Amino acid sequence: MTFAEQLINWRRELHQNPELSGQEVATTTRIRHWLESAGLRLLPYPLATGVVAEVGQGEKVIALRADIDALPIQETSGVAFSSHNDGVMHACGHDVHSSVILGAALLLKEREAHLSGRVRLLFQPAEENFTGAKALIKAGALENVSAIFGMHNEPGLPVGTFATRGGAFYANVDRFVLRVRGKGAHAARPHEGKDAIVIASQLVLALQTIASRNVDTLDSVIVSVTRIQGGNTWNVLPESVELEGTVRTHRNEIQQQVEKRISEIAAGLASAFGAHIEVEWFNGPITLINDDKWAAFAMQLAQRVGYRTQTSELHMGGEDFAVYLQTIPGAFVSIGSASEYGLHHSAFNPDEALIEDAARYFATLAEQALLEK
Ligand code: NI
């Protein structure tokens, strides 16, 4: 069996046996077994799921991170190795990321005697619910680590393509809930109520002015209402309407500006219509900020080993890797996976041809990063 076949087999075994965030028990057992069989040292962190291993000797430590969790999606890709777990699917390609970092681990084990330090391999659980990175850091996985690298496959890019960028990359992902409380009334006597549906409608449109009229057009921002709930029949004006939505930004100043404007608009409309509007804000994943130096380093190496490289666009989605980069420098990169269907789609089907090259790339990246100051 070739190296590529080995990695593809592992990827398919993970793909057939996907597990949700925080429940990656069998996945953890598999990865532990494969790493141990290849002679890697497992570090005894007290983790419910997830694996941390190490290779090499010495003071300096570089970390490589893969995520291992799947999504609550019923697979429709039709591949022969489709999910055996009903309603659960590796629809984000974390099985691919895991096999890439497993491959890098094997290659680094072969070069162990020549490494100028240690490479720590993080197989992180619970990326999709943004709790895994925090858990690994709490367990001590970043101790003595001077830089960390990770990847996401990019279905929109051809295999052999590599993209990253210095600075902000993935977005702050925040959520809000607005509760409009007016006064219910008979549909025949609207003047006796304060129609929560009319107020909520004004609110939806007013929120659109935050992106179009408050934030600099050159800054990235999304403000979307994604759920409206109110009323339960045709002849009653409901007392209350609940709205929920999301805000995506890359700069914390903009994030704070948007949060403040939502509150101001809600208060203003509540006052104008004599209603009450309650605003709840939930901070989600933080913006992912690549270190300029390490992003350039990763890009140059990618070019040197034969990838077509490009500066990545900003992503409006979130990525838990951001939490590591809040603590230590490093870079997150995109590698083309050429899937007709995108991430989190039930027919997502990344091209496995990316795996071997990416494994070789990450092994060399860690090896080279150990030589940097
Ligand atoms: Ni993902």
UniProtKB/TrEMBL annotation:
<dbReference type="InterPro" id="IPR002933">
    <property type="entry name" value="Peptidase_M20"/>
</dbReference>
<dbReference type="Pfam" id="PF01546">
    <property type="entry name" value="Peptidase_M20"/>
</dbReference>
<dbReference type="Pfam" id="PF07687">
    <property type="entry name" value="M20_dimer"/>
</dbReference>
<dbReference type="InterPro" id="IPR036264">
    <property type="entry name" value="Bact_exopeptidase_dim_dom"/>
</dbReference>
<dbReference type="InterPro" id="IPR017439">
    <property type="entry name" value="Amidohydrolase"/>
</dbReference>
<dbReference type="GO" id="GO:0009014">
    <property type="term" value="F:succinyl-diaminopimelate desuccinylase activity"/>
</dbReference>
<keyword id="KW-0378">Hydrolase</keyword>
<protein>
    <submittedName>
        <fullName>N-acetyl-L,L-diaminopimelate deacetylase</fullName>
        <ecNumber>3.-.-.-</ecNumber>
        <ecNumber>3.5.1.18</ecNumber>
    </submittedName>
</protein>
<feature type="domain" description="Peptidase M20 dimerisation">
    <location>
        <begin position="175"/>
        <end position="267"/>
    </location>
</feature>
<dbReference type="InterPro" id="IPR011650">
    <property type="entry name" value="Peptidase_M20_dimer"/>
</dbReference>
